[in-house]
Amino acid sequence: MSRNCNIDDCATPARPGRRLCDKHRTRIRRHGDPDFTEWTVADEFDVELIVTERRPVEGLTRLERVMVARGLSERDVPAEEVARIVGVTPRSVYRWRSEGFQPAAWAAA
Length: 109
Description:
The structure is a single chain. The protein is mainly alpha-helical. It folds into two domains: 1-31, no CATH class; 44-108, no CATH class. Helices cover 50% and strands 0% of the residues. The longest helix is centred in the middle third of the chain and has 13 residues, at 62-74.
């Protein structure tokens, strides 16, 4: 007998011996805990501290990553360095810097 995934509202069966379906397991591995990857949660003091000190930090929310990248980009920090500090690929930084990519979080920050 197969159990359903432990994520609310997911009717997909979990893998044998597991608690999550493949989709949610992959999503959590790639993006972290869904409770801490919201666009609306950001600590502006932490963001400014990271931008000022230019040190890598783990556990940033999605909004904080974008805010740190924007702050470092405004200070003319190279994309590779921004990517190292924020914990993403340089391609993500180039994409965030492009004129066509303006998520709501970037505009709200």
